[in-house]
Amino acid sequence: MSQTTVAVERSPRRGRGIGPAVPAMLLLALFFIIPVFSLLLRSVTEPELGLQNYGELFATSTYARVFFNTFMVATVVTAVTLIIAYPVAWLLAIMPQRHANLVMAVILISMWTNLLARTYAWMVLLQRTGVINTTLMKLGLISEPLALVKNLTGVTIGMTYIMLPFVILPLYATIRAIDPSTLQAAALCGAGRWQAFRRVLLPLSAPGAAAGGLMVFVMSLGYFVTPALLGGASNMMLAEMIAQLVQSLLNWGLGSAAAFVLLVVTLAIYALQIRFFGGMR
Amino acid sequence: MIRPILLSAALSIGAAMSAGAQDMVFTSWGGTTQDGQAQSWAAPFTAATGIKVLQDGPTDYGKLKAMVESGNVSWDVVDVEYDFAIAAAKMGLLEPIDYSVVDRASIDPRFATDYAVGSFYYSFVIGYNKDVLKVTPQTWADVFDTAKFPGKRTFYKWSAPGVLELALLADGVAAADLYPLDLDRAFAKLDTIKSDIIWWGGGAESQQLLASGEAPLGMFWNGRIFAIQQGGGNVGVSWEQNLTAADVLVVPKGAKHKEAAMKFLAEATSAAAQAKFATVTGYAPINVNSKAEMDAAVVASLPDSHTESQINLDMNYWADNRDEIASRWYSWQAQ
Predict the structure, then answer these.
(1) Hey, what domains does chain A have and what are their CATH numbers?
(2) Quick check: A247 and B61 CB within 8 A?
(3) Helix runs in chain B, H state only
(4) pTM
(5) Minimum Cα–Cα distance from A247: chain B residue
(6) Core-most of A53, A215, B134, B177, by most CB within 10 Å?
(7) Domains in chain B, ordered, with CATH?
(8) ipTM, two decimals
(9) Beta-carbon separation of A250 and B62 below 8 A
């Protein structure tokens, strides 16, 4: 695909290539770029002209903490998701197609189930009087219920579960495209399984992992429902804070500033990804 | 009363976006409360006037402000928290209530202002799970006593009248000396049990926490305890130092069906409609004549019947200090 792009760019008739994209670009301009611009404008004009909203955002320890929470949760969720997704994608790639389709269907069905329903289900499972704690206590494995929800643990579990398909799918695609004979060659050269994974499979599948990981990281940065329900008051993330500023406190200037910072950070991460991995494949 | 955040993210109901000439739009917080409002107020109103009432929700203060600012107001009557109504009136977001249509004389004067008229009122009460607790908590001081009542306790999550007041009461402040709130003292008191607090963001969540025993005691809207009891849940309630607050109905500035909206307010605040709503939800009527039309057993379960140690939360104080308290509240919570 990247080759096609290159070919188009080199073509002398490149200008005509934009034609079919005009409707999409208009749509983006109308419903994304203009609103984003007015958002930016609000952040420097409300309640008065100036950068005081950004000043407040960076100077207040609460907001700094919320930024920290957001990046920490996104990082932890991305890492855990990648670790769990690798074996699944690998198994999917080497399974007989029939079985792989079945497993894939299970993954996709969970992805299409209502987000709120899934999050509430985790609440029921994880709470102090929930299924997991009651079972463990009945088995005598623990004497006190574990704190699995309304904290960082709950957010990580819930979000990792929701994000898994977004890593498994691209990873599966890249791993499947890897020629199995490269692994055979590694084995023939005396590489153990771990070494083959680390030195052959991992580098070859890195673009898929990077694409999936980036998607998860960026989605996690702006995530809302799951952290709000499974996290505690001290785990507040940016999206929840913005919603609070805009909906309840009517502090649109500050809310816009926070939203704009989030957008800039997201774009910066995307730019880094393009630079190091050549964009999504 | 349930905060909009989760609901609006999850279910943005756009049903009422295009009301016809003979229709109007009523916006509230969803759930059993709005069901009660639709059934007790809107249905008889439509039957009497022929004006259809489209239900929208949940209430979202940001949306309300955006509508008024853009001049494209699609909501005609909105159920909001009382302190917000006072602040919104000052910001010029509301139409004055037309008291030539709405009968001010029959409305409890606590809940009638130039820009808002009562929707219903409720109390924050102490609720406890009888299956879990052997001793019953009586006062807010008991709720803070983790030695006597081990386990989690649950409080309202958002910056709003209630939690700070009950912390001060638990710390021994007399009801008469509550306002202006001693914020330092309130937060210091809350610090003593901070790790034992589970916050509830909406009524359904509070019911779930209490009924499951996840948090065997805490503060609740009286209507939610009523709902658990109606459903057969083994929960008790203490009305000691119950704290009253109210939801009010407002008409956003520039509402397209202002005339219909005022007529709707007249119906919604009438003795009969208020009596019916109170019977369905367990929240108290704001019309002083409603109780005469209600079942004695229901009247006994309302905040009105527990006035001995009752405290009215000061909405004017909150309207003036809303922003300042909110920023302290959320930074304290986040620590």
Answers:
(1) 26-277 (1.10.3720.10)
(2) yes
(3) 4-10, 31-37, 43-49, 61-70, 82-90, 140-143, 163-170, 183-191, 203-212, 222-230, 258-268, 271-281, 296-300, 315-334
(4) 0.78
(5) B62
(6) A53
(7) 4-121+246-305 (3.40.190.10), 122-245+310-334 (3.40.190.10)
(8) 0.71
(9) yes
